[in-house]
Amino acid sequence: xxxxxxxxxxxxxxxxxxxxxxxxxxxxxxxxxxxxxxxxxxxxxxxxxxxxxxxxxxxxxxxxxxxxxxxxxxxxxxxxxxxxxxxxxxxxxxxxxxxxxxxxxxxxxxxxxxxxxxxxxxxxxxxxxxxxxxxxxxxxxxxxxxxxxxxxxxxxxxxxxxxxxxxxxxxxxxxxxxxxxxxxxxxxxxxxxxxxxxxxxxxxxxxxxxxxxxxxxxxxxxxxxxxxxxxxxxxxxxxxxxxxxxxxxxxxxxx
Length: 255
Description:
It is a single chain. By secondary structure, the protein is α+β, with helices and mostly antiparallel strands. It has 2 domains: 10-100, Phosphorylase Kinase, domain 1; 105-250, Transferase(Phosphotransferase) domain 1 (Transferase(Phosphotransferase), domain 1, Orthogonal Bundle). Helix content is 35%, strand content 20%. The chain has 7 helices and 12 strands. It has helices at 10-17, 60-75, 110-117, 121-140, 202-216, 222-232, 239-250; strands spanning 19-24, 32-37, 42-47, 85-91, 94-100, 105-106, 143-144, 153-156, 161-164, 171-172, 175-176, 199-200. The chain has a 5-stranded antiparallel beta sheet, sandwiched between helices. β2 (32-37) and β3 form a beta hairpin. α5 crosses α6 and α5 runs parallel beside α7. The N and C termini lie far apart (46 Å).
């Protein structure tokens, strides 16, 4: 259905593909995304935005690089919490990523976050289990967390479905912090994401995932709380070790 390449701007192509019913053009990165309705389906389409736009947080080449990373990550595996990537279309404005459309509320929005935190503990734990299972798969494929926070999580309260998105800044394999204060929310960030030259690796993923639970789960059961505290203090040696400890603790509780 989707071509491999187009010779017109993404918005022009999308206008011909179907109806643009949503526009997301206020992203800090400079990316521009769309919701598109065709005769048969809805899609979420992400682009690098205007190549000539001035004064953006990331320049055009950097935005293109991150989109290609997002495509590589999506193609490295599938998971119910991650929208399917249907196509990557090359355009004069860089790659155009066509994902399935997902309904839901961004948990970065205060009202949605508070509504989520008021859910029964069992429902929140089911969401965290899905988040952690996804990251176990990403970790096994060699991906290390980057700029993850509640703005990367969307929850459909009716369908009880988690969607994780915007993983463009994840990287394969361990690397060093070359920025000092890296991209991200300090509510979620590991100490090494604030220290120039510090190693960023699977331990970082474990820390950030533990912080997600501490932010979103008001009263963790004691066995799980102990795992989260270890992940954010003495630290687990790997994401796998954190995930194993989480699963072991989960098997001992009833909610």
